[in-house]
Design a protein that fits this description.
This protein has 348 residues and is α/β, with parallel strands linked by helices. The chain is 45% helix and 14% strand. The protein folds into 2 domains: 151 residues, no CATH class; 187 residues, Vaccinia Virus protein VP39 (Rossmann fold). The protein has a 7-stranded mixed sheet, sandwiched between helices.
Length: 348
């Protein structure tokens, strides 16, 4: 049960975070040139976009849900500590320092700068891009250190709360089970934010974090060093170095919108391969067309303004059919602000 004091502190803390990250978002928008199409014309979304009042209402709804989950003991009351004041200010400076280069890439549509980097390992072409027009794409240590700040600015402080909604179907699956005897694999774990939530809630659950970027796994390691029972793997989600039927739970947070259509099917098949019979797959990613009234135009803006080259196919993808073809049964979904949570089980 969440006490009135805990609720007040949570509300104050999240309000301060939203104000902080939203101020960065507004400042970034002012520095950004008007969006243009590939032919140089002014970009205008074809569908409706939500106004600020609707966005703030739905954002507040996400935090209410977050607090309700804590009240139901699904996880502890979120703190969302972003580091010391010195660290927070340093990330703010780094964000604005990088912003001019982000805007230059956006104007020039320069999205393959990262291919000039000397990166070890065999990386697929679709991964070697400047996603979000960010410096280093997903391939450098500087990018990894700045990534969480950039994502929280993009989602006005809601990224952590959206990720946490995956803990709800996880808790449902974990009920009456011994966490020490289960195995969880987080595909495309990035800097380890979601794995931190998992380990904080289930400290004895053995987990694997898998990602293509060694630099992002280095950053994840720094965030997860206080926890045990964690293995981090640099690997491609198309052919994961994990035994058939070895995982009880697999999660993928904000992965599938950054995969080409043909690769999504391959990754879905490999996820099904790795799951045990009766295992659970939890999917968290962007909402799709039709998921939220008046939001489809915002998805168009996201694709155009943040270099998400596979977003136009993602918003129309039939994931229920895709995962059914891979052998997973759809159990339901819920919306969490700008994201959706989908649950699939592997029928034993």
């Amino acid at each position: 049960m969440v006490s009135p004091l805990q609720k007040a502190l949570f509300t104050a803390r999240q309000g301060a975070r939203v104000a902080w990250f939203y101020s960065h978002y507004l400042a970034a928008q002012k520095r950004q040139a008007p969006l243009k199409t590939k032919t140089g014309e002014a970009f205008r979304p074809q569908e409706a976009t939500p106004d600020r009042a609707v966005l703030m209402r739905d954002l507040a709804g996400l935090f209410e849900r977050d607090l309700k989950n804590a009240d139901q003991d699904i996880y502890a009351v979120p703190v969302d500590h972003d580091g010391s004041l010195v660290s927070i200010l340093a990330k703010s400076r780094a964000f604005f320092s990088d912003l001019s280069m982000v805007n230059q890439r956006r104007e020039k549509r320069d999205v393959h700068e990262v291919r000039e980097l000397e990166i070890k390992g065999d990386l697929p072409g679709y991964f070697t891009q400047n996603f979000h027009f960010q410096t280093g794409g997903y391939l450098t240590e500087d990018s990894a250190k700045l990534y969480d700040m950039q994502v929280e600015v993009l989602f006005t402080g809601a990224a952590n709360a959206m990720r946490r909604q995956a803990l709800v179907p996880l808790a449902e699956y974990m009920k009456d089970k011994d966490q020490r005897r289960l195995r969880l694999l987080d595909v495309a774990c990035g800097t380890g934010r979601f794995l931190r939530f998992v380990k904080k809630t289930y400290p004895r659950l053995p987990v694997i974090g898998l990602d293509l970027s060694q630099s992002y796994l280095y950053e994840a390691e720094s965030h997860l060093k206080q926890y045990s029972g964690i293995k981090l793997l640099t690997a491609n989600a198309e052919a994961m170095p994990v035994a058939d039927g070895s995982q009880d739970i697999i999660t993928a947070i904000f992965l599938f919108h950054e995969l080409p259509p043909e690769i999504r099917k391959i990754v879905a098949t490999d996820i099904a391969r790795c799951l045990k019979p009766d295992g659970r797959f939890i999917f968290v990613d962007s909402i799709q067309n039709g998921d939220a009234e008046g939001y489809d135009g915002l998805l168009e803006l996201f694709e155009a303004g943040f270099h998400e080259p596979y977003m136009s196919s993602y918003v129309r993808e039939d994931f229920i059919k895709m995962f059914a073809n891979a052998g997973l049964e759809y159990k339901g979904h819920s919306r969490a602000f700008l994201s959706k949570v989908m649950v699939f089980d592997k029928v034993g």
